[in-house]
Structure formats: structure tokens, C-alpha cells
Specification:
Low-confidence stretches: none
Largest sheet: 2 strands, antiparallel
Distance between the termini: 49 Å
Strand order of the largest sheet: 1-2
Mean pLDDT: 76
Radius of gyration: 30 Å
Shape: elongated
Number of helices: 7
Length: about 150
């Protein structure tokens, strides 16, 4: 999810509201999509997460009457226009900042841990020599290291 867009709300245009109202009046309360259309009309807008989910469903899942009940092509073009305009707006602002000399605006700032083992957990020392295995030297070395850590 684009963090610059996650709090956006896209107000439904009057044309879509009229069509959704007409569709809602022609639907029964048990019809599929009734609650979605009712919620859209009650809220009057889509937030970013809803718009993305709704776009996916319009493109992949909804067919036939279910697609038409939510104003299918018109709703899809509205969502695509809103999302594309906002994404392009965010992109152009970041690009302008980079052109002005700021560091890469498309990457989040972070600190990199350059150690190979950032959690500082040491791997177990495995004995490969026959003599070490017979005499348990690897175990005694680990016990000595634990004693040093406890001091």
C-alpha cells in the first residue's frame, strides 16, 4: 500500500450516485451487492483501501447483474481515474524533490545493520576432529564461554 495514499477519500460523483440510487431502488434487500451499494450511498465516498479492493473485484470477480448493480464500467473508470491521478501526483512531487537535489524520495529512510549477524546470536561450534569429539572439548569450550559471560 502506498503510504502517501492510505488516508485518501474519493467522493463519488453525482452521476454515479444517481445510478447507484436507481440500482438500489430496483434491488431487493436479499440481492447480492445490495449492502455494498447501500454502504456506498450512505458514505458517499471510497477510501483508498476500499477503492483498491473494489477495483480488483470489478476487474476479476464480479460479472453479469452483480457487475451492473455497482455501475460496472463507470465505477471502474472512476476508480482508475482517481487512483492514477493521485499516484501520478505523489510521483511528480517525489520526482521534483529529487530534481531539486534531495536524496531518493522513493525509498524509505532506514538504518542498515552491516554486521553479518545482526541479532548477535553466535552459531554453535561443531567439532569435526575425532579427538575433540571423544574428549568433549567443544562442550567444555562452550561452558567456559558461558562462565565468562556470567562474570
Amino acid at each position: 500500500m502506498n503510504s502517501d495514499l492510505k488516508h485518501d477519500k474519493y467522493v463519488l460523483p453525482d452521476k454515479l450516485v444517481e445510478r447507484l440510487t436507481h440500482n438500489l431502488n430496483n434491488m431487493g434487500s436479499n440481492d447480492k451487492g445490495y449492502t455494498r451499494v447501500k454502504n456506498l450511498l450512505d458514505q458517499g465516498h471510497l477510501n483508498y483501501g476500499q477503492a483498491k479492493k473494489f477495483k480488483h473485484e470489478l476487474e476479476n470477480d464480479l460479472t453479469g447483474n452483480d457487475y451492473e448493480n455497482v455501475c460496472g464500467d463507470d465505477m471502474l473508470s472512476f476508480i482508475n481515474n482517481c487512483l492514477n491521478n493521485r499516484r501520478e501526483g505523489v510521483k511528480s512531487v517525489k520526482k521534483a524533490k529529487m530534481n531539486a537535489g534531495m536524496e531518493n524520495q522513493f525509498l524509505k529512510t532506514h538504518t542498515k545493520d552491516k554486521s553479518k549477524n545482526p541479532t548477535k546470536v553466535r552459531n554453535v561450534k561443531v567439532s569435526t576432529k575425532n579427538d575433540d569429539i571423544i574428549n568433549n572439548r567443544a562442550i567444555y569450550e562452550n561452558i567456559d564461554r558461558i562462565k565468562q559471560l556470567l562474570k
